[in-house]
Design brief:
CATH architecture of the largest domain: 3-Layer(aba) Sandwich
CATH topology of the largest domain: Rossmann fold
Number of helices: 8
Strand content: 25-35%
Distance between the termini: 46 Å
Helix content: 25-40%
CATH class of the largest domain: Alpha Beta
């Protein structure tokens, strides 16, 4: 599967990049890498709608100065792009996320090796970091967990390292499905069951904790499924949206008996923690 790479220059860069990334993610763009003047965005060639992208840029032209170019990137070229741009990151001084070609660190609880295959979730994006920060505060040892929209599988990997089991990882994208399996193997994780599909896979399954780092529209659409698959007093952790979307998501969550337990914000990107109450 070929991808289309967009190189985007935004002025002002903040909050321009965050706004455009949020909107592009709703048009099926999957991966984003920051640059000095903006960011690069990647979408599967068969999902690309030129008209919608041009309309999005035009709608934001009064707020930001936007310049962009695009090119087709072959599947076999991705590793070269990845290796030239990736730097290790740390989360809360406990979790170290690196590529296979980086040296193993010392002094971290969790050493996570990630090599993406056009999948979201390298740990660099604010939403992934928000999810990992919240996950490391939870008691998930020996408790069932779902990583919905798993991308690279990074959240499932951290959860496994924390002792969660059994773990299920789900993504609609073939790249993400394959990449999660590969990254699980790289980290010697063998207690994660990976599915390619959508929320219908959750039918009949129950979890103590559900992690869903997806865009707002998918979260709203699948909220009922998440609640049905969550045990009483279980955790639903959501991210992938802006602080301006909190009211809409919270209202939908309350319809299904969820109680807001916590919230965190990083450059307008937001994480919400809900608990399923026994109504």
């Amino acid at each position: 599967m070929n991808y289309i790479e967009f190189s985007i220059v935004v002025e002002p860069k903040e909050p321009g990049c965050d706004v455009l990334i949020a909107q592009l993610s709703e048009l099926d763009f999957e991966s984003f890498f920051e640059s000095e003047t903006g960011f690069s965005a990647y979408i599967q060639e068969n999902k690309f709608n030129e008209g919608k992208v041009k309309k999005l840029f035009l709608a934001n032209s009064d707020l930001f100065k936007i310049e962009y170019s695009s090119k087709i990137i072959q599947q076999q070229n991705w590793n070269k792009v990845w290796e030239s741009s990736f730097q290790p990151i740390t989360v809360e001084g406990k979790c170290f996320i690196r590529a296979p070609f980086h040296e193993a660190p010392k002094g971290f609880l969790y050493d996570v090796i990630i090599e993406p295959k056009m999948s979201f979730g390298t740990g660099h994006h604010n939403t992934t970091q928000l999810m990992i920060q919240k996950l490391m505060l939870l008691n998930v040892k020996k408790k069932s967990l779902l990583d919905m929209g798993c991308g690279t599988g990074v959240l499932a990997i951290v959860a496994s390292m924390m002792g969660a089991k059994p773990i299920t990882a789900v993504d609609t994208d073939e790249w993400s499905y394959e990449n999660t399996i590969e990254n699980l193997q790289r980290n010697n994780i063998n207690n994660v069951l990976v599915h390619k599909g959508d929320a219908r896979i959750l039918d009949g399954k129950i979890f103590h904790t559900i992690l869903a780092n997806i865009n707002k529209n998918v979260l709203l659409m699948d909220m009922k499924k998440y609640v049905e698959s969550l045990e009483i007093n279980g955790n639903l952790i959501l991210s992938g949206f802006f602080e301006t979307d909190v009211h809409e998501l919270s209202a939908k969550a309350q319809e299904f008996g969820l109680k807001l337990e916590g919230k965190a914000v990083n450059d307008q990107w937001t994480m919400l923690h809900f608990i399923k109450t026994n109504l």
